[in-house]
Hints:
There is one protein chain. By secondary structure, the chain is of the alpha/beta class. The protein is 36% helix and 16% strand. The strands form 4 sheets. A 5-stranded mixed beta sheet has the order 5-4-6-7-17, sandwiched between helices.
Amino acid sequence: MPAGASGRHTLCGVSIDTSPRNAPLPLLVLGQGRDLHSERGVECPGDLPAPSDPDLVARARAAKEALGDRVFVLGHHYQRDEVIEFADVTGDSFKLAQQAAARPQAPWIVFCGVHFMAESADILTHDDQTVVLPDLAAGCSMADMATSAQVDDCWDDLVEAGVDGLTIPVSYMNSSAAIKAFTGRHGGTICTSSNAATALEWAFGRTGGVGGSGKVLFLPDQHLGRNTAVRELGLSLDDCVVYDPHRPGGGLTPEQLRAARMILWRGHCSVHGRFTVDAVQTARREIPGVKVIVHPECRYEVCELADEIGSTEQIIAKVGAAPAGTSWVVGTELNLVKRLASKFPEQSIAFLEKNVCYCSTMNRIDLPHLVWTLESLVEGQVVNPIRVDPEVAHWAKVALDQMLALPGRTHKV
Ligand code: 13P
Ligand code: SF4
């Protein structure tokens, strides 16, 4: 075989197996290769148990029992049932980060969620605790839509337009630690889907109030930013502009930046972005008296037609408090909707989309990965630790602490 016809090669910084069986691919396919520019990989660095192993549940139980209080397992609401079964606590990203911080005696925090959540947990936990993500491929496509370099370029555009002094960044929890650090460095705050309105009020309050001339740069979910600013703070759609990081100057003129009150980053959730106006109208036609409840990561037009809007925790609370016989269609991730339907059988709960709509990265965490993680810990081996660079962690914590100091926050430890 000629030299270079097999082995590993680098393409655009990505290490790829180019043996004949694995010809180079333009895209990084799950299960092959590893992105060297990112902590997130697609190769599991160990031997996973087979998904067909009939002893997986027993193995997970035995490993967890052997670890006792030394391990604390957190499960986001969008995780699979097979994983949730082993979670010590379930919640949304904010509640889970707080819960991780509230267990200083556990040396290992196994985070069954996605990468940005594990990063936040690492930032909020003690230095002698290690946060583990069972599969490093569990990223978030929305968080990946705002990179540090892009956001720095955006800030340069604001400086050029002469509006940086009037602008406070507000970043959604669903962002990388680097974006959270940018937010902390520029005097902003983090928010979650349950406290976004309070965070925006705080940010506008720093520059003359909602009726003043200040601006918010909202990262990275344009929908949560728009829904909150227009539906809850009373700004108009014309007050909002969308900054596209793939176009020079964000695709905006300096005049547009100067006139805007909300500068929305062009990012979205690939799951919640799929719910449509048509699906809401069909549900209303086909299910008499149905109540439509959606997550604020859904598009503005969809939220406008819904009866209720709420974060993951709020959706669970609202459905749980409804009287028996209530009919719902729910616009959020399918694992959670299925769990709601089995938890509240006295209600009729349907999914707001004909096509399957799981979060593919949340679903990366499965029982084989959890068993591998727990059994490795039993053997004293910490796999897939998430460690945020100390300088980044410092500034990200400034922004996270600002969020924790906001008045009337929804979640309390
Ligand atoms: P919350 O869990 O904060 O509602 O966020 C939803 C989500 O998309 C998590 O990835
Ligand atoms: Fe990211 Fe959306 Fe998946 Fe949440 S549901 S992890 S925001 S892609």
